Amino acid sequence: MGTRLFVALGIGGLVLAVLPPEPAHSTGARLTAVAATSWQTDASVLGLAVARGKVYVGGRFSTVRPPGAAPGTREVTRTYLAAFDERTGALDAAMNHDLNGFVWAVVASPDGSRVYVGGDFTRVDGLVRNRLAAFDTATGRLVAGIAPRVSYRVKALAIGRTSLYFGGSFGLVNGVTRNRAAAISTVTGALLPWNPDADDDVYAIDVAHDNSRVYLGGTFATLRGRSHWAVASVDTSTGAALPFPAASAVPLPTSTCTSRVKDIQASGRRVFFADAGDGRGCFDGTWAADVASGKLLWKSNCLGATEALAVVDGWLFKGSHAHSCPRTFADGSGTHFLLLQNPATGALGPWFPNTNGGPPTLVGPLVATSGGSDLWVGGDFTEVNGAGQQGLTRFTNFGPDAPPLRPAVPTLSRPAIGQVRATVRASLDNDDVRLTYRLLRGTSNTVVASTRVSSAFWYRPNVTLTDTTAPTRTTQAYRIEVSDGHHDVRGGYATVTVR
């Protein structure tokens, strides 16, 4: 994995263009498309966070089971919250709590000493915890001082310095009006003055890395009575709206289209947004803004609701059910649930593993996180790369990468005396896009021609190689070998009588 394909991007959307393998913006991504072993859940995963070598997982599930175990077998009880070893994927036996409602969001403190969870629950291990709780990562125990009384669902969490920001569907916190967004002190647990006052649900929340602002996303139309459709940038202390011209990326609702922001990922000088739309052709894509100026950097108009974002090893990961990027999926290649994007341009990257979409949403991936050089994905899926794997999966930068697809038997022709031309459809490699093709002659597999061609799951051109030294008036056998630099995969033979 090292050569890359990029797709030309304009602000209006993606346009198919196969470019030379080296991009103008280089990144460090080395994730293999082969999923690493991971435990599974019996229902959706909705929240993920990494802290001190562990991955904390929340959702709708009531049991977890080992890799490869079929549904209903070898199950271990974990009611809506579990933890796993980040390196091995093994279940953390010590993190075992009884929650009485779903977990919708999980976030780790910057130093990894705590994880905060939000959701529908009102009890944890029999103790009152109204929809928000904190756990000590060293002991796994509840943190006593973090117990705000939130009146309804908490769906999103983010931390900025000593403030825990949260959003959802609630209207009161500690009996004080806080419409769908609020903040508490991570030191004392006290309710803070921060109050954006949203008129509808907040689905996503994140804090700029310089703590200059908080980003909100959801289905709201106003903050503090002023129009802010689905997204806003607000002050970290008061919640007052700040100028944010990039908000124009989200179209205003119409009778045929309602697009809302489902996830937000701040990373350095950029902040990334994921949209999902109701209505044919409604905006479902991703977009990026500059933190300092608030200006729109790029917008990708792929269709298929985008639910999850994570920045990993210099790439922007998106979990969606992408089924159409203008001109890009023009071959009818179907739905793709896992994709990488160049964070500088939005162009699709060289990584194409996949999941399916399972019940209840049928979207597939719903949440993602990274410990720096790995990627954990949770959601409704029941398969990863065609194999059974429910609710949770992970990808790493170690272990085997994906081999190219076995090439087909070539179609042979005789363009001239002493020449044989072989044509074959380009192969596919889920973590390499620039592959080497060799034309092999005879049982000795003599290399008589080679070339390098870019391909992706939506773009597989024909590859043509010509043997210009074929022995005349003989019958020869030819086959194609394709290589990604780690794997050499050979197809079957075809024969021809040379002129």
Automatic annotation (TrEMBL):
InterPro entries: Quinoprotein_ADH-like_sf. Gene3D superfamilies: 2.80.10.50. This is Fibronectin type III domain-containing protein. It comes from Kribbella karoonensis.
